[in-house]
Write a structure and sequence with these properties.
alpha+beta, Killer Toxin P4, Chain A, 2 domains, six-stranded mixed beta sheet, five-stranded antiparallel beta sheet, 5 helices, 11 strands, disordered N terminus, repeat, Cysteine-rich repeat secretory protein 38-like
Length: 243
């Protein structure tokens, strides 16, 4: 699978895979973005192991956490975020799986990020807290076509996700999920979430950018996502989170 630090990847998944988010076992995607490598016997690897262990303990109670380990050129920074509706136990399970899986997929690079339905985990030798990561992102789309004019549909998507953006920015979890009635017994569901190290203004900027990407990735489709290391948005014509 193609990996890129600067070019977003479009992933085409089947409708049934998108629908069954309850499985949540396999990663959605990962990116190895570190410019420098480390060895298995290096101080950086030791610090990375300590960092991943710290995140497993620190993240689940609130659903988000940052940490760092080491100093100088061997210092490593990391964060993990669980989706806003995910329970503490499911959050811990996801973060616990994410670290070892990412070490297997990116065994040398000093920077990497992995996404699941329930969580994301990122680490780097460069301090990145409080900064928008607009390079490491990808897209998912529902393969079914929408049975209405897409630009009209996108106006409804934008209306819902913009409202959820404002809600997420104002909330302590920087997370919002909601719905919009479309008529004809159709309901649009949406989600917006940022990592909580971002300021309110940066969260809003990140989410607005993610929303603006949707027409180019998911034109004419019933569902789509922009999934990034700092924020993500999603829309579907069916409910997709635990409420």
């Amino acid at each position: 699978m193609l990996r890129s630090e600067s070019i977003p990847l479009y992933l085409l998944l089947s409708f049934f895979l998108l629908l069954d988010t309850s499985l949540g076992v396999d990663p959605l995607y990962d990116i190895c973005f570190g410019k420098e490598n480390y060895t298995s016997s290096s101080p950086y690897k030791d610090n990375l192991d300590r960092l991943l262990s710290a995140l497993v303990s620190k993240v689940p109670p609130s659903g988000f956490g940052t940490s760092s380990s080491g100093e100088g050129k061997n210092q490593v920074y990391g964060l993990a975020l669980c989706r806003g509706d995910v329970s503490s136990s499911d959050c811990k399970s996801c973060v616990s799986d994410a670290g070892p899986e990412l070490l297997q997929r990116c065994p040398k690079q000093k920077g990497a990020v992995i996404w699941y339905d329930n969580c994301l985990l990122k680490y780097s030798d460069m301090e990145f807290f409080g900064k928008i990561d607009d390079k490491n992102k990808f897209y998912l789309l529902n393969v079914q076509d929408v049975d209405m004019d897409f630009m009209e549909f996108y106006r409804k998507i934008k209306e819902l996700l913009s409202s959820l953006t404002d809600e997420a920015v104002a909330g302590p979890k920087k997370y919002a999920y909601g719905q919009l009635e479309l008529g004809g017994r159709k309901t649009l569901f949406g989600l917006a979430q940022c990592t909580r190290d971002l300021s309110g203004d940066d969260c809003k900027t990140c989410l607005e950018g993610a929303i603006s990407d949707l027409p180019s990735c998911c034109y004419g489709k019933r569902g789509g996502r922009t999934v990034g290391a700092s924020c993500n948005v999603r829309y579907e014509l069916y409910p997709f989170v635990n409420v």
